[in-house]
Structures are given as C-alpha cells and as structure tokens.
Amino acid sequence: MTELLAGAAFRELFDRYEHTAFRLETRERYVDDEEQEPLRKFLAAEPADDTWFLDWVEDIEAATAAGKRIERVRVVNEPFSDYTRFGLDLARLNVSAGEDIRYLPRPVASDLALPDEDFWIFDSKTLAVLRFADDDRLQGVEVIDDPAQVLLRCQWRDAAWHYAIPGAPVVRESGMGDLRSGTVSYSHHRRGRSSFRRAGPPAALGRSP
C-alpha cells in the first residue's frame, strides 16, 4: 500500500521547492474541521474571523517575497455551491498575499480532458497527488516521482492555466453581491460550451494546501 504524507511531512514540500508551486482543485467541496465555523459564519452573513487562515497567508507572503510563484486553478460548477462562494470570499487573502488563483468552468475542464484529481506540482518535477475519503476529507498526499506521470500533470497544468479565468483583478474589484450571485461571465473559452455568461465578473478561489 502506498504511504501517504500528512501534516508536517506534507508541509515540507512547500519548504523545499525553489521556483513554482501549482495546485489543481477539481472537487466541489472539501471538508476540514478548521473550516466549519468560518463556513457557518459566512453562510449566516456574520463578520468573518480570518485568523484561522493566516498561517497559510504568511506562507504565501514568504514564498512570493523570495521570488517564488504559487498558482492555482479551481474547477467549479454553475451555479456556485455555498462552499464555492465561501472559497471565493477567502481568495481575497490568498491573492493579497501574492498567490495567483484562476477559475475554470467544469464543462471546459471536461473538454480539455482534465482529471477528477487534485494535485500539487513543484518546480515541474515533484508531484503530490491529494487523496480524499468518500466524505471529502483529505486522507493524505501521495508523492509520485515517475517522470511520465509528472509530465502528464505538467500538461494538465498548462492546459488548465491557459483556459482559466484570471481572478486577481476580480477579487480586488468585486463585492459580496457578486459572490452571492453564483454566476460569472466567461468569454475566454474558445470551444463555446461554457454556460458561465451571465452578469458578474470572474472571481478567484482558493484555500490552504
């Protein structure tokens, strides 16, 4: 059975990379005990307490200050789920710290034959595939060093990044009214299948690792 990394062993991957870290997120939701109360407050329109998220924000700030890049593409459905909107709101912290988060409609991801798989790839050579339980909780991370598997994820990364919607300007300019609408205009997709065309700007989305 493949050994899965978790906790500090997983975090060490972020300490060791030198240039780029990329995350592909494909799941509709993620379950983490630490997020449950912030999510409840968001859905109840109560004032946010973002202190639980600040360790990751500080990691982003330190990485980008050192000249490293952190990039993320989030594959989402329309209309946006409550959890997606929660992530949209959190993204203001990621983006302000220097992470570049982009946004890809699921029909586009399907056209591109992207996998139903979450992964991080570091410096285009270290692959960490995230494994989840049926209840959407992270079980651990499988580090794969097979060059063919790494190359395949690099190709998926490049395709997702090319078609994804840049999110940083939207996080700076949009308000909660846009996040609650659950829709986004999407004109970049050349294959014409995306239904994301109603009013409302694209938005960044992201969480911690």
What does this structure look like?
Helices cover 39% and strands 20% of the residues. The chain has 209 residues and is of the alpha/beta class. It has one domain (7-181): 2-Layer Sandwich (Endonuclease, Chain A). It has a 7-stranded mixed beta sheet, with helices on both faces. Helix 4 (82-97) links the parallel strand 2 (69-76) and strand 3. The radius of gyration is 16 Å and the shape is globular. The two termini are 24 Å apart. This is DUF6879 domain-containing protein. Residues 9-166 form the DUF6879 domain. InterPro entries: DUF6879. Residues 182-209 are annotated as: Disordered. Residues 187-196 have a biased composition (Basic residues).
What is the global morphology?
globular
Say what the CATH topology is.
Endonuclease, Chain A
Output the number of helix runs. 8
Please state how the strands of the largest beta sheet are arranged side by side. Answer: 6-5-4-1-2-3-7
Q: What is the radius of gyration?
A: 16 Å
CATH H-level superfamily: Endonuclease Chain A
Q: Summarize the amount of helix as a percent range.
A: 25-40%
N-to-C span: 24 Å
Mean pLDDT: 83
Question: SSE order, as H and E?
Answer: HEHHEHEHEEEHEHH
Uncertain stretches of 5 or more adjacent residues: 169-206
Structural class: alpha/beta
Q: How does the major sheet shape up?
A: 7 strands, mixed
Strand segment count: 7
CATH C-level category: Alpha Beta
The CATH architecture would be: 2-Layer Sandwich
